[in-house]
Amino acid sequence: MAFVKDMLRMWAHSWKRFISIAMITLLGVAVLTGIYAGCRDAFRSTDRFFDAQGLHDVQVLSTAGLSNGDIAALRKVNGVAKVQAERSQEVTFDLDGRKSATMQEIGTNGIDQPYLQEGRMPKKAGEIAVTRKFIRDSGKHIGSRLTVTPESASSDTSDTSDTNGADGTNETNGTDEAPSFPTKLTIVGVVLDLQNLSNPDGYSAMTSFRSTATTDYTFFAPSDGVTGTLCTSATLLVKGAAAESTFDESYENTVKQVTDRIDGTVKTDRQKARRQELLDAGNRKIADARAEADKKFADAQSQIDANRQQFNQQVDQIVSMQAGAAAAGAAANGANAGAAAAAGATTPQLDETTRETMRETIIAASPELTQAKQQLDQAQSQLNEQKASTEQTLKTKENELKTSIPQVRWYVQDRQSLGGFSALKSDLDSIQSLGNAFPIVFLLVAVMMSLTAMARMVEEDRSLIGTYVGLGYGRLAVASRYLLFALLACLIGGGLGLIAGFLGIPAFLLVVLQGMYVMPGLRLEYDWLYGSLGIALFVVGVLAATIYACVQEMRQTPASLLRPKAPRAGSRILLERIRPVWNRIGFLGKVTARNIFRFKSRLIMTVGGVAGCTALIVCGLAINDTVADLGIKQYRDIYQYDLMVVSDDSDASAMRTKVASDGRVTSSLDVRIESGDLAISGGGDGDSGKAGSSGSESIQLVAVPEKHLSDLGEMVTLQPVSSGILGTSGVGKTGSLKLEDDGVIVAQSAASALGVKAGSKVRLTNGDGVRATAKVSAVNRNLIGSDVYVSETYYAKLFDSKDAKNTKNSKSSEDSEALTWNAMLAKLSGSDTSQTDYAESLEEDSSVMKAVSCAHMADSFKFDLMGAVVALIVALAGGLALVVLFTLANTNVSERVREMATLKVLGFFDREVHHYVNREMMILTVMGVILGLPLGRLVGGMLTMALNMPSLYFEVEVKPLSYVIAAVATMAFALLVQLFVNPVLDRIDPISSLKSVE
């Protein structure tokens, strides 16, 4: 009992060490669990939301739409739980200019159900539900009416291709018709689109650079009033997928098994079958046209024949009359009156030659008969010509049918292809990667501080330990005094850390996340396993340090422990050997130098602890500086053009005419821009059509006219980059990189994510879904977006553009029909504001699909989530620095109580004692800061490996001001600690402190 009471008194006396260990554990556990818990809560809430609303696991799109046979084939795939056929149509309407929207049918099979936020779901024809973004932009409300205009039929059976056949066969295969929605609409509800969780009332601007939407808005309509049997897509739920977290690898593997099956035989068979359906439909149309033409020609021929017969009858009648009259005249001139009478009573018989001669004579003598005969002959001639022409046309169409209907392509996509899903996942993954890296530093600092504090605690009780061991207490029992002390401090600190880690930090992160994304049903949850392991990790580290400190003391005999520890033998330091410097240092300066460098453990612990905290602060500020400069570097340094304008292929010429007529452009470059995909070569077959799979990146494919390859360097800064150590990269000289016909230039952001470098082979997918293996000639410095530059000739070689084979020798790229230059990169005159206004005005033009101002993008680029995490990390690092300095300062004072007492006896005033002790701590702090600043920059260099996000490359940037802030903050913490240490120095009693141990 006395042993326990003494242990409790010892614990109470060492409350400062207890608080230090508890605080370090609290901060470490909070960092370890907090960021993880925040991301996990967001992951789980989003997964529950997706499961409740039935977000599809797989989506199948086709360039020719999906027929009932396609849907039936998908239902038979092993592993498919549900299949929902979906119909949609793109429409336009007037809202401060021409805007586009996708009319989406609300499925009846429970898949992709929009989440109702306000009002009610549409039920009748003409009713729609809209997104909150539309309500905010339009100023409309529930009950408002809207009139839309369907886009041309050729615009819409797929999100991935606009080639459905030159003859319009996308609309019919005999029975299938393209979807058609009502055009007079009434808003009855406000919903959340599962495919776009961006919060329009929050920080939505920060995700605009990753937006993949092809239209401005999405309107949801019921099946009532929708006509057309041809489906634009099919959505699937996979068996067992709902039981897995949509963000885990197990979910991806489950879905991949089904997509592989679809990509195998089903896709190939149905592509062929669908094309054959289109061919059969075309042949039926031709056969029907031939039958209809034959019927019309037969009717016309019958009419001509009837008219000719009537004409011939009239002529024959005249011939007969003239022949009879002639015979009667001849008989009247004869002698036999009886014979004359007989001759007049009968019609004379004429041979055919005579009759035909008489017909021609009669027709020639009569203008009316001549005209009638000519009309009949002309009608017959025209009919014969029409027959021949129609037959030739039908034969030509029969011959052209196979070439006019392109090969049908299926696109099998998973959730990774959804822009909103992939943006949320990449944001959370990047933050979670930081949460996995920073706790390591906290753990190392915790172990170092625990070792320092517990070693001093054990050393202070040296004689007491010797007494207990001499009385027969086991070394384990004696050591338990300190082990339980450290354990209790860790458990209390860890418990408080769990509260901060599973409540405080996640609540902070989720507030920021909800400003960016709409996540219904979000709630905080506790993970018993992870929380227990988090505390256990720090318990093991701190206890290991305590055991080491106990072993170091208790391996001596009780007799040795009962005697005071011999003072450390005097020794010279290196500075003493530099006489010119040493001789000029004052007495107190020499004492300070000896105290600093003789006690190497204290030096290492203090400098290491301060350096680690300073490095954390620098690293956090480095993230902030890096993100803050991304937009400026990309849109002002890398992109030298001021404006990018994109149009439909059919409007490309009108777009260029419009821009040229405005007179704002000082120089320009016509290019072709397509949305494509870049993957590591060998990642799949060349016709899989699967986007967003593992090992692939969505890209912007930029084809450059052959005659203007050298002009690309005037619009985009071309700098080759090479990979370095610890995530760093080497940047080559500006202008040393040129686009050639032997490969593509890949953006650094995509190359870093895929591990691609110059000379690598990649699988490139163009806007039509055609895939080819390309060589990477160079990697270009690029921070935002994933551009891939390709020459016109190499594009033709990759994607077999037959018309482009000889474009290299053509007179000009404008004369070539190989590619349609649907985009323009231009430099503009005027201020940034005028350039932004001009880009906005261009978007209102019907020939312009998208106009982007680099000045606007540079000013508006934000990454608020990363800024919030940076603030959190800097705050925690500052707290850790404060605790570390407090622990080290108190340990330093407790080790040197007799020394301080001696100084007081010698006549030192309290202020002089403060200066004597604090000067050493300040020097050690400065040394730690000097070491921590470059260490923080080195750790910051590793961020490019940790923050591996789609379409973003973090080129680490640390501004001089950040170094100053980190140094000043650390020094400020050191000065703050002095305010706590000085009273402790004042309370030292020289008499009691200088008593010898008897």
Q: What is the assembly state of the chains in this entry?
A: single chain
Low-pLDDT regions: 153-174, 203-213, 339-345, 683-694, 802-817
The radius of gyration is 44 Å
The strands making up the biggest β-sheet line up spatially as 14-15-21-18-20-19
Strand content: 5-15%
Average pLDDT works out at 80
Total number of beta strands: 23
Helical amount among residues, as a percent range? Answer: 40-55%
Compute the separation of the termini in Å: 26 Å
Sheet with the most strands?
Answer: 6 strands, mixed, barrel
Q: Per the principal axes of the C-alpha atoms, what is the gross shape? A: elongated
Number of helical segments with 4 or more residues: 28
Class from secondary-structure proportions? alpha+beta
Task: Describe, in plain words, how this protein is organized in 3D.
The chain is α+β, with helices and mostly antiparallel strands and 998 residues long. 55% of the residues lie in helices and 14% in strands. The protein is built from 28 helices and 23 strands. Strands 14-15-21-18-20-19 form a 6-stranded mixed barrel. A 4-stranded antiparallel beta sheet has the order 2-11-1-12, with helices on one face. A 4-stranded mixed beta sheet has the order 8-3-4-10, with no helix packed on it. A hairpin with a 5-residue loop joins β16 and β17. α5 packs across α7. The longest helix has 84 residues. The two termini are 26 Å apart.
